[in-house]
Design goal:
This protein is an alpha/beta fold. The protein contains 12 helices and 13 strands. It folds into 2 domains: 41 residues; 259 residues, Ribokinase (UDP-N-acetylmuramoyl-L-alanine:D-glutamate ligase). One of its GO terms (molecular function) is pseudouridine kinase activity.
Length: 321
Amino acid sequence: MRLTLREREIVDLLKKDPLISQDELARHLGISRSSIAVHISNLMKKGVILGKGYVFNEQASIVVVGLSYLQIDIDKQDEHNIIDLEYRGLPIVASEILAGFGVNLKIISLIGNDEPGTMIINRLLDNKVDTAHIHRHVRKRTCRRLSIDNSSRWEEGFDSQDYRQVLNSREWIIFNCEWLIVDPCFQADVWARASKKEEEDLPHFCAYSFMGENQAIPEILTRYNTLVLGVGKPSGMEYYRKQLNNIVGTSVQNCIITDGRSGLIYRSGNTTGDYPLPPNQSFDSQDGLPGLLTGVVYGLSSGYPLRQAIRIGAGFASSSE
């Protein structure tokens, strides 16, 4: 959780003496008791302090910002068609991966005021996730994405104004965490808000994107700290391998590239490596990206080195197939 300098001072004092009074804290720091009370209240809101006994929450805090939607896949057959329905999106994937690990997780998402929206809420509740920050649009339906034969794709969804409305009322939550995972729908808008804040007050920004063949990496993605890129072919991995020197060293600290079949290429600082995928761990290089990034963030936030975090992420991405 990102703390102000004064909040960090108070936390240090409380850890040394959990029974210290607010009056004593005020005298020690040379500020009023009422100011101490405000800081303590903010620390509780941020989840750093869990109660009046000053019990500290040591779990890393992760906020996920993304769209939840109904995926409709149609597979045309000679004699009959196969139609599959599935609820997808970064919030659902992240909640299913992180729910069992005791992570301090908050989900920010946008759904419609309809039955699919209710189904998504129930799915998140089943994963023991707080749904207080899910925005239900009163006039629009929950996003639907239609794919025919895994090629032609259509979408019924929301517009940029809808996304901004979600962020407007939840900006405090977004920027008061340690790790922030953002899906493509919100990436530009979230960074536009972050660019107006002091860098030291920002969380670790994490993003993913599926890249077209030899597509230039959008500048907005180079503003994120941990970046996962999916490509359609092994040749695409080699193309983006050559771009790593230009990517890492901007805001990007960790960059991972994968085709979901042959393996992953990664770079962190001056270290570049390959992580080959076992045959039983292949995954879709587009639909598997939310699971991959969520697993990587879980690994990094738990103190694992990047290669081990990639191993965790690849396992989650393949298990969600």
